[in-house]
Amino acid sequence: MRIGLSVYGTTFGMGIHPASGHPTITPRQLMDKAIAAGLEGVDLPVSLMKSEDTTTVAHYAQERELFITLETEGYDPVKLASAIDLGVSLGVGTLRKVVGGAKLGGDRRALAGRWQSFLQEVLAGLREASTIAERAGVNLAVENHQDLASEELLWLCEAIRSPRFGITLDTGNPLATAEEPVDFARRVAPYVKNVHLKDYQVYMSNEGYRLVRCPLGQGVVDFPTLFRILLEVCTHITMSIELGALEARHVRVLADDYWSDYPPRTAAQLARILRFVQDHAGPPEDWRTPYELKEPVKAIIAYEDQQLVASLAYILPLSAKAN
């Protein structure tokens, strides 16, 4: 089990967020940052490779014995084929991708009545892309990006049935599809190819609950149990620290029209997630991040950095013990 660094938990400090005003981090700078943090790899967005020499970046990683997980989005097999080719040139083991469709927070209402046809389009595109990934020897992993529920991820894996197709498990995102993180991980574990390490604090709302970013180990995710589950089925898995977004995610599970395009859930399942949220909910307080409070860029970067440092202090000893 090796842990790397994603750009998406520190988007201001790495110049990923357009409001940061900072130059966008380069692949080599990202790798240097990972090494300085005591990590063993990086999650590298395809977009960061636009002006880069692929051979140079690949050699830089190989010389430092770093893994690269390449990140992209969508389900167009032509676009994914191009990303797979790039991944082969970089020596990556896994191409992680998101399919979208739902708004963050698990909200499918924008595709009301069209969700099932959307899923069929996703299946067709990923099935074709998986054949390409098999020939290339690269894993194609779909993330639970606050869009697909565990039922749908399992359906994709069982329908495609490729040894190179699987799941990128984001440890915090199950809450956005009204699922308890450990239950979610246990269900999808046989198909997990890659992991994003994320934690959330939760706050109740009139329509459901909000997910607010926090350092790993300071939220609701039970990482020791997750590690035990994953190590039973995928010992050599790669993971990356990806702290939550700077905007809270509102999961409106109590809205009248929220559930119409979700897989059938029992009353017991809904009761379980609501009980989990209530048991872990923070006291009523201002949950907004410095970004949401419109604080200066310098304060937002300091906030990101502090959370990354705290996350490293928690997760690296836990990983060493698990390994």
Description:
With 323 residues, this protein is an alpha/beta fold. The radius of gyration is 19 Å and the shape is globular. The longest helix has 26 residues, at 297-322. The model has no long low-confidence stretch (mean pLDDT 96). The termini are close together. The chain is built from nine helices and eleven strands. It is 39% helix and 17% strand.
Q: What percent of residues adopt helix (DSSP H or I)?
A: 25-40%
Unreliable segments of 5+ consecutive residues? none
Give the overall pLDDT as a whole number: 96
Give the strand order of the largest sheet, numbering strands 1, 2, ... along the chain.
1-2-3-4-5-6-7-10
- What is the molecular shape? globular
Supply the number of helical segments: 9
Radius of gyration equals: 19 Å
Q: Kindly name the structural category.
A: alpha/beta
Number of strands: 11
Distance between the termini: 7 Å
Keywords:
323 residues, alpha/beta, eight-stranded parallel barrel, three-stranded antiparallel beta sheet, 9 helices, 11 strands, 39% helix, 17% strand, globular
